[in-house]
Structures are given as structure tokens and as C-alpha cells.
Amino acid sequence: MAAKEPNQLIKSLDRAIDILEIILQQENGMGVTEISRELDLHKSTVYRLLDTLKFRGYLEKNEENHKYFAGIKLFELSSLVLNDIDNRMRLRPYLEELMQETQETIHLGILDEGEIIYLDKVESNATIRMYSQVGKRVPAHSTSLGKAILAYLPVEKVINLLQEKGMPAKTKNTITDLEQFIEHLNKVKKQGYAIDDEELEADIRCLAGPIFNHRGEVIAAFSVSAPITRMTEQRMVKLEELVVKYSQKMSRSLGFNG
User: Fold this and answer.
1) Element (H or E) spanning 185, and its range?
2) Distance (Å, whole) CA 183 – CA 45
3) Where are the beta strands (DSSP E) in the chain?
4) Where in the chain is the domain with CATH 1.10.10.10?
5) How far is it, in rounded angstroms, from Cα 91 to Cα 97?
6) pLDDT score at 26
7) Cα–Cα distance for residue pair 226/207, rounded to 1 Å
8) In this structure, are residues 196 and 147 in contact, taking their beta carbons and an 8 Å threshold?
9) Would you state the pLDDT for residue 257?
10) pTM to 2 decimals?
11) Residue ranges of the HTH iclR-type domain (predicted)?
């Protein structure tokens, strides 16, 4: 079934994607005339789109035959996508195992442009649980996932991110003072886990642990989330050790030796 055309289709972007797709299908690249004929576009339009894609690194031009072919940027992006897929596949069994052990919803998240994106999720069978969806973006400063990642980044980078994104209060418990937040991150790094104590949503508590790659870089985090009726302070203390344990297990599965 063909995808329905969106109401606000951006024609120039749509045409640029058409150009990329048709060039990638040709082993030896394509010239302006060929592209113009295949896509029924005016040559001047093709020239402008090719120049833009070349400028951004998505295409390169053979100056001898004037044909365009895939640029290094496309290979970089495809490598990142494949790496994310590979990491998710490696980590998924641990997320499922942790859900079985805690009977609570488990999230996998990454930091992107100062926000957390839910990359994967293993849902609890409990009737009352946190609402979330894969692909959703949430603020880094008010989530345990965000804090678990930010704690292991250079302080200057964290400050720049937070100053750019801001630190709005999501609940009365959200930390909105930058200096206080940096001190909080020092504590997170020292103990090896982060807590969201009703800082993103009222009545929801989360514990998160960082995930490191083979180079020792923090690349993601996972969290255990539950309503405060189940995630009592006493239970959180018991889960802290478990989160640290799974942080180590997941990181080692990616080659981390720390």
C-alpha cells in the first residue's frame, strides 16, 4: 500500500530525496541530463538541488565525466543507523531480562541534541504503568536517563546543552538551577545510577544506569520506571544495586572493560 502524501509536502525536499534515491541505484553515478530526464525536472532545478546535496556532503561529483555519486555523509549516516540497530539488538535481551526481574517497564534511551529519545522499551504487564512510546523525546535534565548520560559527559558540554535547551520545571521536583544540577550529576557519577523522583511526571519514579561502549564512552542509558505506589523509597534502595549490575552487564556486551 502506497504511503499517503502529507498535506504539507515540501516539494524541494521531496525532489532532493528522489535525486538521492535514483543516483544510489546507478553504480557509476548520474549526470544532470539523465536525472532531469528520469525525474522530469527542469535542468536548473536539478542543478540547484545537486549543488546543495554536494555542499552538504551527501553527493560528490566526478569532474571528468560530470556525474554525481554518493558522498561520504551518506556512508556516515548509514553507519550510525546500523550501529544503533546493532546496539539495540545486543541490549534487548538484557532489557527483557531486567523487566522479568523487576516486573516494571524498562526503557533504553540516547541523548540527541540535548534531549532524550526513547530508543526501545519493554513494557510491564502491570495495569498501572508509565505512558511512553519509542521515538518520543523528553528533556534530559528531568529524566533519570538524561542524568545517567549527562553525568559522564564533560561539564562544559553539559552546561552548553542545558543553557541552549533550558531547564523548565516539569513538576515541582524538577531541578531547574544549573549549579545545583551539576552538583547532582557529580553524585550520579559517584554512585553509578540516576534517579528521577517525580521530576518528569508526578507519581512516577525511575532509576537509570549508563551504558558505555568499548571506548569507555557513554552512548545510552536504561531505566526502570514505575508509579510511586510500587516504586517506594524502600524498593528504590533495593533496585539501586540491580541497576548498577545491569549497567555493567550491558556495557560489557558492547566491549566495555571498565
Assistant:
1) helix 178-191
2) 54
3) 59-62, 67-70, 105-112, 115-122, 137-139, 194-197, 204-212, 218-227
4) 11-70
5) 10
6) 84
7) 9
8) yes
9) 84
10) 0.68
11) 10-72
Buried b (16+ CB within 10 A) or exposed e, 63-78: eeeebbbbbeebeeee
Q: Which residues contact 126 (CB under 8 A, 6 or more apart)?
A: 103, 104, 105, 226, 230
> Which three cell numbers mark 65?
565525466
In CATH terms, the fold of domain 11-70 is: Arc Repressor Mutant, subunit A (1.10.10)
* Domain ranges in the chain with CATH number 3.30.450.40: 77-253
Listed as ranges, residues in the chain with pLDDT below 50 are 1-2
Please answer whether residues 57 and 50 qualify as being in contact, where contact means their C-beta atoms are separated by less than 8 angstroms: no
Amino acid letter, 141? H
Q: Which of 126, 135, 162, 133 shows the shortest CA–CA distance to 147? A: 162
CB 243 within 8 A of CB 209: yes
* C-alpha to C-alpha distance for 102 and 123, rounded to whole angstroms: 11
Grid cell digits, residue 194: 540516576
Number of residues in the chain: 258
Q: Residue 88 and residue 119: Cα distance in Å, rounded?
A: 8
Superfamily the domain 77-253 falls into: GAF domain (3.30.450.40)
